[in-house]
Amino acid sequence: MRRKSKSERKVFVKTPTRNKISFRKSSPGKKPCVECGTQLMGIKRDSTFSLRRVSKSKKRVNRKFGGELCSRCSREIIVEGARKWK
Ligand SMILES: [Zn+2]
Asked: 75 C-alpha vs ligand 1 centroid, how far in Å?
């Protein structure tokens, strides 16, 4: 057995000779907004290795601060910045 970690998910696998315990990596949870902490939507989460094969548009939202802030927080920051320059 390669990995014997408590943090990894145990899966019982039936083989013709015996029942084995296999360990599967748990996928990461949803990414939170940096400002308010709500879960961001439309962002694929996986190990960094497998995300290399995923296109950029699936890893972040096509918006300024997309992938870091939620829509409400990014809107607030953009409006705040526009008012500053008035
Ligand atoms: Zn937010």
From this structure: 9
Q: Which residue has the higher pLDDT, 3 or 33?
A: 33
Q: By residue range, what is the domain housing residue 61?
A: 27-84
Total domains, the chain: 1
With respect to residue 72, please indicate whether it lies within any of the assigned structural domains: yes
Rounded to an integer, what distance in angstroms lies between the CA atom of residue 31 and that of residue 39? 6
**Centre of ligand 1 from the C-alpha of residue 41, in Å:** 11
Reply yes or no on whether the pLDDT at 4 is more than 70: no
For residue 3, being part of any structural domain is answered with no
Q: What is the pTM of this model?
A: 0.64
d(CA 8, ligand 1 centre) in Å: 30
Residue 57 has pLDDT above 90, yes or no: yes
Enumerate the H helices of the chain as residue ranges.
Answer: 48-51, 71-84
- Whole-number Å distance, alpha carbon 69 to ligand 1 midpoint, is 5
